[in-house]
Amino acid sequence: MAALSIGYQIHFHFNPPNLLPLPTKFSSLSFTAKHPLRWHHIGCPKICAPPAVSVMAFGSSREVLPPALDSSSEPPAIFDGTPKLYISYTCPYAQRTWIARNYKGLQEKIKLVPIDLKNRPDWYKEKVYPANKVPSLEHNNEVKGESMDLIRYINSNFEGPSLFPDDPSKREFAEEMFSHFDSFYKAVISSFKEDTVNDATFDSIETALSKFVDGPFFLGTFSLVDIAYAPFIERFQPFLLDVKNFDIATGRSKLAAWIEEMNQIEAYTVTKRDPKELLESYKKRFLSQV
Question: What distance, in Å, lies between the first and last C-alpha atoms of the chain?
Answer without folding.
Answer: 44
